[in-house]
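input
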Amino acid sequence: MKLAFAGKGGVGKTTLAAWTANYLARQGKNVWLIDADTALSLGQAAGLKTEELPVPLIQRKDIIEERIGTGIIHMNPVVDDLPEKLAVDIPGDYSGTQKLIVMGTVTNAGGGCACGANALLKALLSHIMLERDEWVLVDLEAGIEHLGRGTVRAVDGLAIVSEPSRRGLDTASSIARFANELGLTRQALVLNRTTQFGVTLPGEMGKASLEIPIVEGLAARQLENPSVIGLAEQEQLDGYVASLLNTFA
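output
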């Protein structure tokens, strides 16, 4: 199954993606984690140290030139071997596996044409989503940029994460609308950091598929440790993840 996590920046989508991957690995599943967010924080959230993170594909000029070319651009590059070359293992006490790939993005204005780099990013993401018969979790760019390009058209489900705020919910509503236009109708609205269950949402939002309260263990740790794994509330968090996965079953 392929799932994508979207939402406004800072609402906890990366945290939820890391919790989901860890839960699946402990269930014996093999999971690919794809960091497609410019924040590049998924690896650390999943428990890796800074020095253990893979180099983002967008920075691998050697691979980009090899697969795309420097003159005539190859828009359909061979990428089937790249996941294993680019990924790093996330170690842990589980029977499955977690492999992280960091995509990166082009952010330097005036830095020249990024057509080749973007073509390779899109080709690799499409390969992993369409041709890999494994669990794939994609942490998307904050907002709706990836959905606008249609790069997650092949996902089986979209977890749209928001906090209980007007700005967060406005972004969530935009994401849901764009996803529907792409035919991605299997969506789950996750309301994170709620102070009470059964929050009444604006009329156009419908009902949240999952509500997650403030996790005290995470709040106490986050200034000292970027990892969201191994919290005292593990059993409770597993229940939330299982509930989310059931919405896409």
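quick obs: Residues 2-248 form a domain with the Rossmann fold fold (CATH 3.40.50.300).
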